[in-house]
Amino acid sequence: MIVRSPLKTLVPVFLVAALSLGPGQDSRGQEQDADAPAQAGPPAEMPAATTSDSATVDHSGHDHAAHAADLQAADSTTDSPDMAAETEAIIKEFKEKAPPEFYEQGMAATDEFNDVSQQFKDKVLQMRRQYILFVNGFNDDRQAYLTLRNESRTLMNQAYRKALDLIDFFPHPVAMRYVVTVLEQRFKHDVYDLETVEGAAKLLDYGIRLRYVALTAARAAMCSGDFPLAESLYKNLQEDELEDKDRALMVQFEAIKKQHETERELLSNDPDDLPQVRFKTTRGEIVADLFIHEAPSTVAHFIELVESGFYDGLDFFQVVDGLLALTGDPLGDGSSRPDHFIADEHGRDVVRMPLAGSLVMAKLPGPNKDFIPNTAGTQFAMLFLPLPSVSDQQTVFGRITKGMDVLGALRRVDPHKEKKKGAVIMPPDRIIEAEILNRPDTLPEVIYADPFAPQP
């Protein structure tokens, strides 16, 4: 739901110009980033992982992209002299036009945004200092930097929430600029949750016309189930403004809508005590519900693997922009084969849908761009966007409930991409530790399969 300020104060012309012409942006409204992922093609099929024989050089301390993103977001909460004067003028207008109680609420929202923003800037300053010490060899405590980076992301998201609450009252210039900055990062990293669509929709409602804001709103609307909004936005975008992932979403619009409606009904009937898994990763924590009732064998097998420590230390060996992140291979390149295969469960009477944040079992590729039945084992994917075709061949066994921004921050890794001679390859992100939360006392029976046994 979009909440609109009853005052409908016009956004100042200078603010629109500042938001539309940020430094380093190309004519399509995207900032060029050396570590930014390339755009993916239409996600027609989930790719199988392949062996990559490229060596990697560990420059894990040089986390430039994530570091720069936090600095950019923190800097966007700082007033310039001109913006401070404009903010003062807008607050004065707000006081003159708003009822006293509404004005007090707006000022309270302003104070809350300013407070969290300052905490965020202070944390980023600590992170900057730790980063400089680490990369210049004055200390070797990389974990301290990673901890500060994750704390910075938490505060960044809290400040974003406070900014959204504030611009419900009036277009506070700093809060508006901050929302734009965060949405730009979410657009780059495929973070399309409810707060993303809320922020993008509010900016559009205020008249901010940036291409990536409109695309972010459309994609987030598709992921969160606001299909009227998504359809309206896509109809108003020109063909040359779309990207391949948008074209794929539009082609699959009806299928995604139907699957989302099915999933919404299933979610409404989910018990409160579903098993959960928590992944502590090099980018932060991801928590996911496990669908033990619709995929009992798969979930039981997965829980046993987690409790054995199998996933601890494993890489996200393939992370494809706009598609998925794959992990669960002890060899780190997608080429391993499990000791035991488990039976498919995507053909059960009730199954879960492959939407944004879904956990999906990976399988061995077949000869015709399909998958060999009953070949799931240890590898699984986390989806950035809905992928309807998954439901035909693969088991959906969980969905992320916390940490979609962490998933989006994973370094993109493409084992299919040709490596240039002498190129320095950054190491992939990894699962530091996985643990099961809300474990049932008794697990369902795991149904194993022998997919290569002779058929009678």
Description:
The chain has 456 residues and is of the alpha+beta class. The chain has two domains: 13-26 and 45-251, no CATH class; 276-449, Cyclophilin-like (Cyclophilin, Beta Barrel), CATH 2.40.100. Helix content is 42%, strand content 10%. The protein contains 13 helices and ten strands. The protein has helices at 13-20, 64-75, 81-97, 100-135, 142-166, 173-188, 194-205, 211-224, 227-235, 244-251, 253-268, 296-307, 404-409, and strands at 276-281, 284-290, 318-320, 324-327, 341-342, 358-361, 380-383, 396-402, 431-437, 448-449. It has an eight-stranded antiparallel β-sheet with strand order 3-4-7-6-8-2-1-9. A two-stranded antiparallel sheet has the order 5-10. Helix 6 packs across helix 8 (211-224). The chain is globular. 45% of the residues are buried. Residues 1-62 have low confidence and may be disordered. Residues 24-83 are annotated as: Disordered. Pfam families: Pro_isomerase.
Question: What labels describe this entry?
Answer:
42% helix; alpha+beta; 10 strands; globular; 13 helices; eight-stranded antiparallel sheet; Cyclophilin; 456 residues; two-stranded antiparallel sheet
Gist of the model:
This protein has helices spanning 13-20, 64-75, 81-97, 100-135, 142-166, 173-188, 194-205, 211-224, 227-235, 244-251, 253-268, 296-307, 404-409, and strands at 276-281, 284-290, 318-320, 324-327, 341-342, 358-361, 380-383, 396-402, 431-437, 448-449. By secondary structure, the protein is of the alpha+beta class.
